[in-house]
Specification:
- Keywords: DNA-binding, Transcription, Transcription regulation.
- Pfam families: Arabinose_bd, HTH_18.
- The chain has helices at about 10-15, 15-20, 25-30, 50-60, 80-85, 90-105, 135-155, 175-180, 210-215, 220-225, 230-240, 250-255, 260-270, 275-290, 300-305, 310-320, 325-335; strands spanning about 5, 45, 110-115, 120-125, 160-165, 185, 190-195.
- It is of the alpha+beta class.
- It has 2 domains: about 65-225, no CATH class; about 230-335, Homeodomain-like (Arc Repressor Mutant, subunit A).
- A 5-stranded mixed beta sheet has the order 3-4-7-5-6. Strands 1-2 form a two-stranded antiparallel sheet.
- The model has no long low-confidence stretch (mean pLDDT about 90).
């Protein structure tokens, strides 16, 4: 089971281009196992599996990997072709340079350009022509896909020093903390990701069969399921686990388990834009949403499973997370076809 969830905002933002083309987006949601009624709840979230399915359905039905938001169509298979071209590259730097060469063959161009400085490297977003991207989803997706593809190819996360955006902080800007795990700058000159130059010399460790397997679910999986295994957030999530009915490890024992001091770990989490308390809260929230989607679980039992001794405390916490009670949330889920 996946224990990550995706904000309702991204579900709606992904569908903007398809809606503008008059496509039946409610049918797309239902086919992805997402109840359109659930999206009436302002703070609703869907599972990463559902979001991944929705993205694949969206690309197939629009026949466009830009989902109707780009300056032109990117026919289905464009990303797979780029993947096939970069798998033979020796290093991450070669990957980004070849991916840039490939994507600039299409006009108007939509790509990320690598700029290398003395100590840092930047991937800068380059888009020619007009785009229809009112919710910034296309631009966010390109940044995420290029960053996570590179991380997957070298088998370690490319730790970001900074993420910059040439637009004002959007209403969903808080979600960026969990997407990029680094300091954020809005109203910047360019939209770009900055990281330590040392990552560019990291060798590509994947091979053709792995790429073939990877492309069966990507780039949908890259957008819905970040590889957090080597971030401090991801390591802590893994150590906490999913069984909240037993006492959770405290911060000091987590730090010891990770061979670091509590002070250093606090500083690392601050750099990743989060805290130990927030990691625990978001894990509880995601687990609660998962169990609520399973009708066989009574709400009071779910409260115990996610670590609340009193159902009333769970109700209050869940309402804080999602804006509605567990019962109302489950009601919104109910019209989903695969429940």
């Amino acid at each position: 089971m996946s224990n990550l969830t995706v904000s309702r905002h991204f579900v709606q933002a992904a569908l903007v281009g398809a809606e503008a083309q008059g496509l039946d987006t409610r049918a797309m949601l239902r086919d992805a196992g997402i109840s359109p009624d659930l999206l009436r709840i302002e703070m609703a979230r869907v599972s990463s599996d559902q979001f991944s399915r929705l993205m694949q359905i969206l690309w197939n039905r629009t026949g466009d990997e830009f989902m109707g938001m780009g300056p032109r169509k990117a026919r289905t298979g464009t990303f797979a072709t780029m993947g096939a071209l970069v798998i033979d590259c020796p290093t991450l730097e070669a990957v980004y340079r070849r991916a840039y060469q490939f994507s600039r063959l299409f006009e108007p161009m939509v790509t990320m350009e690598l700029e290398v400085g003395e100590e840092t490297a930047r991937l800068v977003l380059r888009i020619e022509g007009d785009i229809f991207d009112p919710s910034f989803f296309l631009r966010e997706s390109i940044l995420v896909i290029w960053h996570r593809l590179g991380s997957w190819l070298i088998g370690q996360p490319v730790e970001l020093d900074c993420a910059e955006f040439d637009y004002s902080r959007p209403d969903h800007g808080d979600e960026y903390r969990h997407i990029f795990h680094c300091p954020l700058r809005f109203e910047a000159r360019e939209t770009a990701l900055t990281f330590d130059k040392r990552f560019l010399s990291a060798p590509v460790i994947r091979d053709q069969p792995e790429m073939h397997q990877f492309l069966k679910t990507s780039p949908a999986d890259l957008l819905s399921r970040p590889d957090e295994s080597n971030t401090w957030t991801g390591r802590i999530r893994a150590l906490i686990g999913r069984d909240f009915s037993r006492p959770l490890p405290d911060f000091e024992s987590i730090a010891a388990e990770l061979h670091t001091s509590p002070q250093t770990l606090r500083r690392r989490l601050k750099q990743e834009n989060t805290s130990f308390q927030e990691i625990k809260d978001l894990l509880r929230r995601d687990m609660a949403i998962y169990y609520l989607s399973r009708q066989e679980w009574a709400i009071n039992d779910i409260a115990a499973k996610v670590g609340f001794t009193e159902p009333s405390t769970f109700h209050r916490a869940f309402k804080k997370w999602t804006g509605v009670t567990p019962g109302a949330y489950r009601e919104g889920e109910r019209s989903s076809p695969d429940r």
